[in-house]
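As a next step, we paired sequence with structure tokens, yielding the entry below.
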Amino acid sequence: MTDPELIVDRRRLRRSRSLWRAAAVVFGLGVVGVAVGRSDLVREFSPYVAELRVAGMIVQDQDLLDAVEDVMARDQAKALVLRIDSPGGTVVGGESLYHAIRKVAADKPVVAVMGEMAASGGYMVAIAADRIYAREGTITGSIGVILQTTDVTGLLDKLGVSAEAIKSAPLKAVPSPFEKLTDEGRRATQGLVDDMYAMFVGMVAERRGFDAEKAKELADGRVFTGRQAAANGLIDGIGGLAEARAWLDEKGVSADLPSREIRVGRDQDWLGGVAQGAIRAVFGKTYLPERLTLDGLVAVWHPELRIR
């Protein structure tokens, strides 16, 4: 064989080897892909217990509501565990989540596990569950509604600044920090708070089996430890996730089923999307009164000091 023929032959051999190597790599990747896909497919259609974290300020959140609705729609989700660590939030946010969870509970067992805190609107969400557990030191309760404002008219007078509003009626935009609250405005505002408070108390009485008098006695705005809450019937027992899964096992949802945390489309903590909305809101509220910077009626516990 001449030298040119030998060179051509070697080149053909190298190309052939390269093609086989490439084919082997593609085949290997295909095998891995099929294995991973099959694993994901098996996982997707295997039964599990869904876990939903409700943390930070509770606001009207369609992503969160969609996640709860997805649990209701999936036959593979045999139960729902709520892991709550929240001081509360807006009345509408808590109410919407409550009703979404109650729809799940109509078909599947739902259990709530309170963390460090599940107060006010956080408690409103918890009572949507069929069973509630808390730690002995959990802060809960704070059943009530608040609408905050402030009066900066005296400060503006000292600064030589005056504010004037042209309104269609005296109660428009009441309460406002730029005008003193009249008796008529105070009565109208109190009526809003009382109506939402009655709704909250009614929910507590219905879900916890209290009569109206007992519900109002416990709904005076105070907070309770987990031990106190258990003694007063606000929760069902002291415990955490292990106790929740044991209860589900009694309800026919095996303790051997894996848990799957529900991923929501936004970050649920104070430094996430809520904070961005809060920053926008604070400038609309002239800084001073609403530390939580939540518009409208809120069901939230926010003491001046927290024990660490």
User: Anything to note?
Assistant: The first helix runs from residue 3 to 44. The CA atoms of residues 236 and 294 lie 31 Å apart. Residues 34-43, 267-293 have pLDDT under 50 and may be disordered. The chain is about 45% helix and 15% strand.
